[in-house]
Amino acid sequence: xxxxxxxxxxxxxxxxxxxxxxxxxxxxxxxxxxxxxxxxxxxxxxxxxxxxxxxxxxxxxxxxxxxxxxxxxxxxxxxxxxxxxxxxxxxxxxxxxxxxxxxxxxxxxxxxxxxxxxxxxxxxxxxxxxxxxxxxxxxxxxxxxxxxxxxxxxxxxxxxxxxxxxxxxxxxxxxxxxxxxxxxxxxxxxxxxxxxxxxxxxxxxxxxxxxxxxxxxxxxxxxxxxxxxxxxxxxxxxxxxxxxxxxxxx
Length: 250
Ligand SMILES: NC(=O)c1ccc[n+]([C@@H]2O[C@H](COP(=O)([O-])OP(=O)(O)OC[C@H]3O[C@@H](n4cnc5c(N)ncnc54)[C@H](OP(=O)(O)O)[C@@H]3O)[C@@H](O)[C@H]2O)c1
Description:
Elements: E1 7-11, H1 16-27, E2 31-36, H2 39-48, E3 54-58, H3 64-81, E4 85-90, H4 105-132, E5 136-141, H5 154-174, E6 179-186, H6 204-211, H7 221-233, E7 241-244
Parallel strand pairs: 1-2, 1-4, 2-3, 4-5, 5-6, 6-7
Helix pairs in contact: 1-7, 3-4, 4-5
The protein binds NADP nicotinamide-adenine-dinucleotide phosphate.
The site of NADP nicotinamide-adenine-dinucleotide phosphate has 31 residues, from helix 1, strand 2 and helix 4.
């Protein structure tokens, strides 16, 4: 993205990794449009950002009709702010920890819609804006589980693996338009997506989550945001799968 100031879309910006990415981009002077289902969370985020730095729509990205309506809102926002769309971060996602025998069709469909089709659809609809920027980027937030799954995560891991593969196809297809497409695979990051996030620091579940990493601790959302900025900014990087995981996948 060189040093151009622009606009970015971040899905799941109401908390966790998405909020850290939105904050990181806003601190660099960019304008951010956040997407999420929870209005109160997004309003809370907007109130902590400088005026006009963070706009948002509430949307369930697993639903085609809601996503389509949101694209219209984003288009109006881009027009009014006068900034090029330099990047889209497909961060929104859901996690299920279930044995394979527990994963019903409904669970697989929920994971497919929530972790893959939602990002595919949003990215496809934003293509005209990304192309018009004459150098822009998509970052898909997958997971180390997409490359090295663990038991009890069949549907989540399979969809995160699909996201990695989709990233590479899209990188090839959109390279002629100077739209770079990369994938970021976080390891265990301490966010509300994990049940143990709200437990006290000395709870055994939290302690063992920290100890699972060779580096001895879980990641911080800000550390994923810094890696995301690299992928958004690096103008000769496309189709890359960047693992940021404290060494857990070694
Ligand atoms: N934390 C980790 O250890 C870890 C590791 C690897 C990968 N990841 C990935 O990183 C991404 C962010 O996760 P996180 O850890 O920051 O979890 P999080 O705090 O639970 O954040 C996930 C966000 O996604 C949004 N979201 C989920 N489904 C949505 C939908 N259908 N429509 C709109 N928004 C939706 C949620 O917004 P609302 O609350 O407003 O619905 C929430 O803000 C996810 O894709 C996750 O799979 C996380």
